[in-house]
Amino acid sequence: MITFTPAFGIIESLNLSNTLATDAFIDAVRPEWEKLYPSAEQLVTTTASDLGGTYDSITEFNAAADRLIANIRTMPRGTWGFIAQRMPTNDVFIDAIISTGRGDVAIHTFTDEPSYAAILGKLQYDEIYAARQQYRAYIKGREVSGVLAANNWRVGTVIHDVKIDGTGYASVEITQVSDAWIVVEATTRSGREQHTYRINPRDIEVHQAKAAA
């Protein structure tokens, strides 16, 4: 899985992780993204019809696409090319292929001949969207670990007299811990039933005894 940890600072500094709709968020981040992951347009100059060629045969199309991908994937970020397939209906679909700069490529399909700006824009869109999701997971994980540390909770910890989602339990035992949640076995006050929850530890409401007057 590709991680965009270096981009977390951009998202955090703009304070945008949850405040904007997806398209607006990506547009806001894009200028800084280009600085962090710069690209330079370079249309590949591979042989003959592999570049911009139109293929009627799916077998020939796939073979030519594989050659184009192999040529582009190791090149600098922004290196790109495209190849087309004509369907039996005479509809033409164009696969635009661009180097990510990480030893792989991104591929997007168009119905008209694409521009460099269009394929780069789609690459950045996918990357920024993934970075936002990773950042949200990071924040959630930081919150979970913070609650656990503050309460000295870990696997095996038993917490008495609690509420989860408004329901009171005699105790809960933490049985699993992950970056994003914990699993607890909750025992009813009667002691006759147990319920399993996968929750954020902040959702455990611990009863606080009132101080004597």
Report on the structure:
With 213 residues, this protein is α+β, with helices and mostly antiparallel strands. 34% of the residues lie in helices and 28% in strands. Strands 1, 2, 3, 4 and 5 form a five-stranded mixed beta sheet that branches. It is elongated and about 75 Å long. Mean pLDDT is 88; it is low at 209-213.
Please name the defining characteristics of this protein.
five-stranded antiparallel β-sheet; five-stranded mixed β-sheet; 4 helices
In brief, what are we looking at here?
It is built from four helices and ten strands, in the order ααββαβββαβββββ. α2 (22-36) crosses α4 (116-151).
Fold topology:
Elements: H1 8-14, H2 22-36, E1 42-43, E2 54-55, H3 58-72, E3 79-86, E4 92-99, E5 105-110, H4 116-151, E6 158-164, E7 167-177, E8 182-187, E9 194-199, E10 204-206
Parallel strand pairs: 1-3, 2-3
Antiparallel strand pairs: 3-4, 4-5, 6-7, 6-10, 7-8, 8-9
Helix-and-strand structural type:
alpha+beta
* H/I helix tally: 4
Strand content: 25-35%
Low-confidence stretches: 209-213
